[in-house]
Amino acid sequence: MAVPFSNQAEEKGVDEGARQPGDAVRRDVRGPWKERLPEVVDVIMRTLEDRGTVGHVCTYALPHQDVIVLIINLLSRLLFPGYFGEKAMHRANLEFHLRETANIAFDLLCEEIAKCLVHAGAESSKEARERCAQEAQRHAFDLLGKFPALIDLLDGDVRAAYLGDPAATGSDEIVVCYPGFRALLIFRIAHELHVQGVPLLPRVMTEHAHQHTGIDIHPGATIGRNFFIDHGTGVVIGETTQIGENVKMYQGVTLGALSFPTDEHGDLRRGFKRHPTIEDEVVIYSNATILGAVTIGGGSVIGGNVFLTHSVEPHSKVTREGPGHRIRKMRRRAR
Amino acid sequence: MAVPFSNQAEEKGVDEGARQPGDAVRRDVRGPWKERLPEVVDVIMRTLEDRGTVGHVCTYALPHQDVIVLIINLLSRLLFPGYFGEKAMHRANLEFHLRETANIAFDLLCEEIAKCLVHAGAESSKEARERCAQEAQRHAFDLLGKFPALIDLLDGDVRAAYLGDPAATGSDEIVVCYPGFRALLIFRIAHELHVQGVPLLPRVMTEHAHQHTGIDIHPGATIGRNFFIDHGTGVVIGETTQIGENVKMYQGVTLGALSFPTDEHGDLRRGFKRHPTIEDEVVIYSNATILGAVTIGGGSVIGGNVFLTHSVEPHSKVTREGPGHRIRKMRRRAR
Amino acid sequence: MAVPFSNQAEEKGVDEGARQPGDAVRRDVRGPWKERLPEVVDVIMRTLEDRGTVGHVCTYALPHQDVIVLIINLLSRLLFPGYFGEKAMHRANLEFHLRETANIAFDLLCEEIAKCLVHAGAESSKEARERCAQEAQRHAFDLLGKFPALIDLLDGDVRAAYLGDPAATGSDEIVVCYPGFRALLIFRIAHELHVQGVPLLPRVMTEHAHQHTGIDIHPGATIGRNFFIDHGTGVVIGETTQIGENVKMYQGVTLGALSFPTDEHGDLRRGFKRHPTIEDEVVIYSNATILGAVTIGGGSVIGGNVFLTHSVEPHSKVTREGPGHRIRKMRRRAR
To answer: Are C251 and B271 a contacting pair at CB < 8 A?
Structure first.
């Protein structure tokens, strides 16, 4: 009888934190239940075979989240060399670093984009796969070709963060650890792939950003220059949202849809404009909610916790009406 | 004098992102402060020895978060083979894959469940540990025996997500990257372990889901078929919540407790029903808060940002009263 | 023509989850686009060279997030030995464990603090680097010297969580998996480094906590004994916030700034008191927002979703005014 305790694991000292789970020297569990495991697996197997709506055995691989995170990290190093590695980046090693990083990122991008193209085409003949592999290379090349423009755009976002946050001590701090900037960097890459028509991959990228930062920006949204999200947890920016230049927002802001019209078959209509348009120079404070295909006019300020389902003119200031709360004196609690 | 800079690290090229932190070829720090480190550790040691309330030296191991994440990933591959690996899953390798995955998941589950049982029993004699190891095997077996039902349940959740989100392009996207689905998959596994009476482990699982998605569902909650959480960040679903079938909710929804009654000793009462009951076909929009053991009648719609502490009848529509905000025109700011 | 599919990867069985992304046996992509990649990299290179505001080539390394996460894990094991490792911690191995953990944590801390000091000084001569290395050792030593006090403080926080949450089954569960406690443990370490004047590193630490838990506490905030945040996603506690003893709060609470005064050049003023003061024994329920340098008097209760921009006296109870919503009966929807 195996006793499943940790003293079975080889003593490895305090560096155990660094090793991979599952590496442990494990004795296999044995016993009556383990012996009956094959029966259980047979039933699972039959259930999977009978499964209708959700295809479970794909004849092609789906994009792999870990690889996509690695791609994002490599692309971040191309956009902001010297910020995300453990070593100092000198003039002397910069060019070598860029070339190597671009090479690896390109190869991995080709592989993951091709998977998504094959998946979208639902065809995995040798010819279809080679065609997708070719197309994936063009997509990866086009994306990297936009990096000079992305660098310029992201520099503006860093500046906007510094100008918008009294707690910021400098631009390096923003690049290294501001979640709003991290989410935006990933969004801006994903958005370009979305515009190029790459399926699935952009959403996997923004969902990684969502997981990392709590900021959920759909890759289909359009976001102008000098955008800043402070704190950011709980922000949702829907698929058809349009945001102008110099916009600032805080944690918990929702730019969402108001209603979900259905077609003649009762199915949801997809793809039509259903999220807000935010014009230039708008500030939206924490936990405000703006729903529907409304327009927030340029220069407006939307106060904290405001709930808005209609358009407002430029230079409006929208705040919660009245104090919105009742205050009464409590008797001192006995403790 | 060691100079603690990155040029001490061996040049490793751009693939440094992949290596483990701490692998660096580091020279040990030396100097007067380092020499006095043992004194500091002695004081920490004495503090730990004197510590009262929080036991710091356990005679048995606690469940290990990294292993539990690995278990969740393996179980996900059993429920949705072909979605979470890097390789395509063919008919030809499916059976081998399922058997291997089930074997490894079973062994790891036994190990972690046994730790939790020993911990709950607070007894670590050889006999107690062998008894817990046996019991852990039964629990792991019972869990896997529920997988056919879980597959059916989760397929319904995927379908609900597709029917509920106009931005969804297909069910594969939902399985691969929707956080609401990820949280629910982990919750449904954890809930079964909770129902079986496995201590601690279910909560560690749902807290991993919480960390990954921002969605905090207590493993004790009861959730019916075809449940969909969109976006999800900030959702809290408390321990005694009951949710019917075909319920949809959005980010930031709280289903929480209203008050915390204490017993005759002034200690919190634990375990009694204190969270809402949500009947079938209810929709709860973003950032709504429902507190207390109230009932939201079937078919009701709870609007965004609504704050509700009493029951509502079936087919109610609850919205924020009035516009809830004040709009005034600003003078154009000089820039 | 490389076909970038997963069947290129060596068959590795189900344990692929454990291996590092990028380890795959990959064939290099070849083709016309790949051949033109060097041109694209040249343009990126020139763009980076022209870049103005955001320095991209640092002559010294910035702190490395993965190493800082490792440091946090090591320091957690010093504060709560036996909770975060895979192995049981016995009396017999405790001292060895503490000495080894302290040694490694000290060395890594020295390295990362020194990077931050060099970065803040923007000087990387050999002399400056050696001076920073020395100073970093003093900072690391001072931090570890505060650990007995931190252990005492954190034990109080665990107790507060147990007393404040009816769903808590014991203090071990809180240490192992409560996000509010995790965020606080990291904050309390980061705050000490902040008080010592270590630049950048404290913020990188609290942003890791933010990423992990959705709780964003600036390292400059002051937080008294026995603090408890339940659930926690979306909590924001600003830089100049002061929190007394025995305070409890829930998910989504914002303690933020109300306005951002600028100096005579139109630049943001930084560092002045702009966030709330929360006195002892205050409870703040979910999604409440308190903005500005206001004071919430001792023993007050701030209700869920309250939006507050002025001070309240001790023992006030602030709730949302009226029901705050409109209920109407819907006709039963045809399905």
So the answer is: no
